[in-house]
Amino acid sequence: MAEYRAGKAGINAEAQARIHSKYNNDIAVEALEWVKLVTGENIPTAGDADSLYEVLKDGTLLCKLVNKFQDGIVKKINQSTMAFKCMENINAFLEAAVKLGVPAQETFQTIDLWEKQNLYSVVICLQSLGRKASNYGLPAFGPKEAEKNVRDFSEEQLKAGQNVISLQYGTNKGQQSGISFGNRRQM
Q1: Which of 3, 66, 124, 138 could bridge across to 133 with cysteines, CB 3.0–4.6 Å?
Q2: Using one digit for the tens of pLDDT, what is the confidence trace for 14-42?
Q3: Per the database record, which ranges form the Calponin-homology (CH) domain (predicted)?
Q4: Can you give the pTM of this predicted structure?
């Protein structure tokens, strides 16, 4: 686990500090309360990184969570505390989350949770899964998902837009601040 590893140094330490600075306790509390509500498990909902890690590290709760979305999406939940069995649980959760509609860029790597390297991405993944919850009849969590806003333009409107000269091409209206460009400086 993470406590057996040597500490990072130099630029790696700076990068890790930047990752840890993104972590937000309030959002983590909301995520844990949502997980508690959906799964019905009695878990502590303190939002600090250590508490989040202790609750989620073996992956069993994460597997139970996605099984509430779709029964049997994770077929076997390992109850063992062996490292590879726990990482299998986390990986099974991640695969199920992608099947449930979580974009791949909003998931995390197994090592991010198992070795406490990036708990911020774990919370982001839970938020993304929480946005999909309403599609499965469960209470939603996280920022509301954007809806499609399709716009249909007629041919006349599209042709009218071709006649507009963009300000990127320049204009002679307004302030003439560059009028003396190229002249010698008057002393």
Answers
A1: 138
A2: 887 888 788 889 999 999 999 999 999 99
A3: 25-134
A4: 0.75
